């Protein structure tokens, strides 16, 4: 198994199997045999024991013989201790192949992360150490893993960070950790340290801006949950991302089906996601529909538009709220991809505009506004009621999402959850039939920067407009 959890099953062993060999080979046969052994070894991904290798390969015998002849050992050591001097570890290794080397080659200092399973929970972005460091577990993770304080044992270890500041150690525990198919016991030191964000979820990410966002975020090393309403399109997107990345195995991507317009789909997704991950750091509500051509304004699909673009993100946020990690230094965040077509100034009905601008605007009033719009559409009176003039149903759905984001931002401002909106501008995607001033990748670059703003620079209740991340207004 490789670091990226790709599993290579053993190919069938050839007749001349190294496992069966126990006799030492005559010198004249060894060069040819060595080649054979190495060829077999390459195919079996090192699935032979060191002893088998030494027995069959002259070259491999020579190297450790040389090493052992210089290794010093005191005579009073027990046999067990001598074995420990010779062996580096007692098994459970993660092995690497050229396949694991990132695009920039071997000369890099990027940390190796893997998604592991601990007590039935998938823990993303676990940093694998090389044996010279301790395994750190932030104390906030303990309750999630259902590890009680009584399971922790003490330790005399004094831990200091790179800046020499002392870290408050809470205790030590050992647990089984599953990496791919391999399960091994690992000791963790529990520290009272903040967790930085690592888990992102993007809706409607099989194409367009959502797809480019996932690509950009996953390529920066984050664990990204790509969701799409269609399973085939979702998996195809994952495959495309892996192919485009060259060595796609070091992208931490997970796919889930999620149709945001269907409350049953939201419920099923959240229930599975909670079982698998149980936490979320960043939610990007990107999925949306519009059925209008650029210069058209039909409200034929108004109900679907409102269900997808407003109620979808709203229901998803409500269902995911318990999973947002609460932390004072590493805040969780929601970035709603909206549109300037949904700005309050597009609303021409003065009473409605006044209500939307009010500091005391409530969730009920927003839902009331959306229901009134649908009622007007059904009665055929929507044209005379002062609703936005361009792409009316889409504009109302995005307007509702904008002001709902403001309500949320106020409600959760002291709870470590920041809520902002981003209009990516006129972008070349299928929503605009390929027209636009820039590509989805360009828009995603700005979106990703906003999603990942450091906590001290991240506001809440703001509307980032257009292509420049500098242009920001109140929601
Ligand atoms: N393009 C622009 O000029 C522009 C401007 C301002 C704002 N935006 C916003 O940017 C976001 C991305 O739009 P885009 O331009 O990338 O459009 P897009 O290419 O049409 O992509 C929309 C994505 O949403 C998905 N989706 C639609 N309905 C869904 C549902 N019920 N459940 C789950 N996923 C669903 C689509 O999946 P399917 O493939 O299954 O349809 C697709 O993956 C949207 O919020 C949009 O309003 C776009």
UniProtKB/TrEMBL annotation:
Family from the record: Belongs to the short-chain dehydrogenases/reductases (SDR) family.
Q: What is the lineage of its organism?
A: Eukaryota, Viridiplantae, Streptophyta, Embryophyta, Tracheophyta
Q: Which organism is it from?
A: Hevea brasiliensis
Tell me which Gene3D superfamilies the record gives. Acid Proteases, NAD(P)-binding Rossmann-like Domain
**GO cellular component terms listed in the entry, alphabetical order:** membrane
Keywords, alphabetical: NADP, Oxidoreductase
The name under which this protein is listed is Uncharacterized protein
What is the annotated signal peptide range for this record? Answer: none
GO MF terms listed in the record are: oxidoreductase activity
The ranges of region (Disordered) come to 1-20
